[in-house]
Design goal:
- The complex is a heterodimer of chains A (277) and B (286).
- By secondary structure, chain A is an all-alpha fold.
- Chain A has one domain.
- Chain A is built from 11 helices and no strands.
- The radius of gyration of chain A is 20 Å and the shape is globular.
- Chain A starts with a helix and ends in an 8-residue tail after the last helix.
- Chain B has a single domain, classed as Rossmann fold (3-Layer(aba) Sandwich).
- A 6-stranded mixed beta sheet of chain B has the order 6-7-8-3-9-10, with helices on both faces. A 4-stranded antiparallel beta sheet of chain B has the order 2-1-4-5, with helices on one face.
- Classes of the chains: A mainly alpha (277), B alpha/beta (286).
Chain lengths: 277, 286
């Protein structure tokens, strides 16, 4: 019993170490982080301006509402991008720096290692997504009179479990393919969002894509967050989006760990668990 | 009690009465693109280790000599749980390296030819997060990191400088500090002084001797520096083409090959002249 508690304490300290390391990296690359955030703001603006563009070209639409719909899509895209980047790029970065051998030979369970990265990614992603949302909403002077931000945050938090699970699967890609693995992570992000109604309703998708949308956590995240912000839906009425997210999360975390372990085993078998820079 | 001994006081427990390292018939192969296959990307299996067997006693220092591509790093990476084997067995203090890797990881740390740090982070930051992976709390590292950096001769004024601003010798000292911070009972040194200037090389070698004298640390030193092997290790092995040709104390090794220097013994054991050795290295290896 005491051994188990010592082991658990040690794992929790290790989890703290993963978060600590990523915090140091953000601190040491803070100006790169600022530059990347400004790029995300610019990227988001190019999408959100579409609503005003449609109106200017004679289209009939509620600009405020459509701008908010697009903004939510762009913010979720950026958030998912950060989750995948931190989970995937950290492995790729460790390969480049050569620290990967020291991290993978440390007595830290892979579950705790990946969960630590996931926790940091969610914390950092939420702060960044909040800033992005606030900046763009201020820029467009968007009105959200009935918005339930707490409800939106609950949906985002539940969805994040699934996102981290999928991120674990993509995190193994740089181990298998040091050259192209990271880019494959971005492809996974794009595929996930294209079927999930990122800037449009899932109803406009062809039938086969709609079927895939059913198993994508981003579908429920986008629907739930839009309902919370545009309609002021509370957690009770968001349950229709929350329970599928819980279900997908319960499946995706063990699946993500299993995929990562399999990839790690492949890398150890073929001598790929080593520095590449 | 010396500073090194203080720093190593909360070390993991290794069972008594078992060898520190016990390797039997260890084999590892890699798939390599067959250059002879021309444009068709055929792959062939290349043996990196061919049935290597040896034992290291607790507290002993063993050096393995070999040219680039001889299998030294493969051996270290297998014992570090970073590779899976294709045959044979390896135990570290009685723990199976391949079926019980987490128990092995608590006992082992390593220093390799590349210092390998997050280059923008400082030495203190690199050591701090790495220590957490071994269960060390912030209050423990707050005192131990300055202590161990001082012990390896790292100037305290440079503790907050990014690693990329440090010389290679300084980086290697921090790598030694990282390995010792976690109080390993088995230290794997993979060419720790390769590429260092003569002064840094001597400092690192002195430190290795020092920690051996002060602590119950078993060391496996892989090197191609014959002088370093003879100076530091109790027994010296020669690894060539993935085969461990011999593992004896340096004097016995010289007697065995009827030569007067370790260098001559090495060339006689591998059956190659110095010129051939150079040509092999220039041609690349596994």
């Amino acid at each position: 019993m005491r051994g188990a508690s010592v082991g658990l304490r040690s794992e929790l300290i290790g989890l703290g170490g993963i978060v600590e390391r990523n915090a140091y990296l953000v601190k040491r690359y803070v100006w790169w982080e600022v530059a990347f955030f400004l790029w995300t703001v610019a990227n988001t603006l190019t999408i959100v301006f579409i609503a005003e563009g449609v109106e200017a070209s004679g289209g009939q639409l509620d600009v405020n509402r459509q701008t908010t719909v697009l903004l939510i899509g762009a913010v979720i895209w950026a958030y998912l991008g950060i989750i995948f980047e931190i989970l995937t790029e950290t492995v790729a970065w460790e390969r480049w720096e050569g620290t990967i051998e020291y991290t993978f030979m440390a007595p830290l369970s892979r579950t705790v290692h990946l969960l630590g990265m996931g926790i940091f990614a969610v914390a950092y992603g939420v702060v960044r997504a909040g800033l992005l949302f606030a900046a763009i909403a201020w820029f467009f002077n968007l009105e959200m009179p009935s918005a339930n931000f707490a409800g939106a945050l609950v949906v985002l938090a539940v969805a994040s479990v699934s996102f981290v699970g999928i991120g674990m699967m993509t995190a193994v890609l740089p181990l298998i393919s040091p050259e192209k693995g990271t880019q494959l992570g971005f492809i996974a992000q794009g595929l996930l969002l294209v079927v999930s109604g990122i800037y449009y309703s899932v109803d406009v998708l062809p039938r086969p894509m709609q079927l895939v949308a059913v198993i994508s956590p981003a579908t429920y995240a986008l629907e739930g967050i839009r309902d919370a912000i545009l309609e002021g839906a509370g957690v009770g009425s968001l349950w229709g989006e929350i329970w599928p997210l819980i279900l997908i999360g319960v499946i995706s975390i063990p699946l993500g760990l299993a995929v990562f372990r399999r990839g790690e085993r492949y890398a150890k078998q073929h001598g790929k668990l080593k520095r590449s820079g | 009690m010396s500073r090194t001994a203080t720093a190593m006081s909360s070390r993991p427990q290794a069972p008594d009465g078992v060898p520190a390292v016990e390797v039997a018939d260890l084999t590892k192969e890699f798939l390599r693109r067959d250059k002879r296959a021309g444009r068709f990307k055929r792959r062939r299996r290349v043996a990196a280790l061919k049935g290597v067997s040896f034992t290291i006693k607790r507290g002993e220092c063993v050096a393995i000599l070999g040219q680039n591509g001889s299998g030294k790093s493969t051996l270290v990476r297998l014992l570090s749980t970073l590779l899976l084997h294709d045959g044979g067995s390896a135990y570290v203090f009685g723990h199976d390296v391949f079926t019980d890797p987490r128990s092995v990881r608590r006992l082992v740390n390593r220093v390799s030819v590349e210092a390998s740090f997050f280059k923008r982070m400082s030495s203190g930051e690199n050591l701090s997060y790495a220590a957490r992976f071994y269960g060390m709390t912030a209050s423990e590292t707050r005192t131990r990191i300055p202590e161990i950096l001082e012990r390896v001769g790292f100037p305290s004024a440079r503790r907050n400088e990014p690693m990329e601003d440090l010389s290679r010798g300084m980086q290697q000292k921090v790598a030694l500090a990282r390995a010792l911070l976690t109080s390993p009972v088995l230290l794997l040194l993979d060419e720790p002084t390769t590429g260092l200037d003569p002064r840094s090389k001597l400092e690192v070698q002195d430190f290795i001797r020092d920690i051996r004298a002060a602590n119950d640390v078993t060391i496996l030193l892989c090197t191609h520096d014959l002088h370093e092997a003879e100076e530091i290790a109790e027994r010296v092995g020669i690894l060539d083409g993935g085969e461990l040709l011999i593992l004896e104390d340096a004097d016995e090794l010289k007697r065995h090959y009827e030569v007067s220097t370790l260098e001559e013994a090495f060339f006689k054991a591998t059956g190659k002249s110095f010129e051939q050795e150079q040509a092999d290295e220039n041609g690349g290896g596994t």
